From TrEMBL:
UniProt keyword annotations, A-Z: Isomerase, tRNA processing
Catalytic reaction list: uridine(55) in tRNA = pseudouridine(55) in tRNA
Encoding gene, per UniProt annotation: truB
Protein's name according to its UniProt entry: tRNA pseudouridine synthase B
Annotated catalytic residues: D45
Annotated function: Responsible for synthesis of pseudouridine from uracil-55 in the psi GC loop of transfer RNAs.
Amino acid sequence: MKRKGVGPDGLVVVDKPAGLTSHQVVSRIRKLAGTRRVGHAGTLDPMATGVLIIGVEKATRLLGHLALTSKTYRATIRLGQTTVTDDAEGEITATASAAHVTRQALEAGVGTLTGDILQVPSKVSAIKVDGRRAHRLVRAEEEFELAARPVTVSGFTVHAVREAADPAGVALLDADVTVACSSGTYVRALARDLGAGLGTGGHLTALRRTRVGPYGLDDAVTLEALEESFDVLPINRAAAAAFPRWDVDGEQARQLINGVRQKAPGIGPGAIAVFGPDERFIALVEERRGETKILAGFV
């Protein structure tokens, strides 16, 4: 197999296929990149497809900050069925007719789940409860509750609604939606809560992540394409695309590399990408009380 342009530090924007876990994608990239220093920003369930950000070598230090950015999804929500996993991979636990659900009622339900909300995550998730993953507790049939957490759903748009076939003859509805939300939001839980609010139950039948921060499907490549020609987005270009930029001179760069705090540039809250002469990406910093605090160094 011929591999071209393998870089030591950078991001890979993968269009994840259905059926693979995010960890399995990471394993594939480790083999292609020839290093174990590979990680991802924001897990996608095996059923889900779309944008998965992979960091290689030093770019893994960017991932914790990329994971805090907003995300956009296309999804299909089935009204009339509840599942144990809140998606199509789980066993159906309840069925109720959705024949009474009007477009007006659906839009109203979506409205209650838009904005700054408190969301109880799906129980079949990687959230830890007393040191144990929630999905393992579900499999062990142990009783537990997850606390609601604040998330932001900045957009929740219904594009189309259609009848869905059901062998038992129950009237089901499928709603195609787009969701823009903060990191940590479970689209599965939005489907569950939308169905609960309408009195029908609900779950996801399809989920595709179309954007993570500045990286969208137009930037993404398939695993098959990467196997033909593996390449990374260089770390300086990745940082410039994802964070506000601050250019410093040679002396400021030297001091920052040595851990000396500088006067803040006044860009605002959040991570800032610092560039020295010759487009050299130096660090991620944040502003605190008029000075810079280094979040991660890249020299």
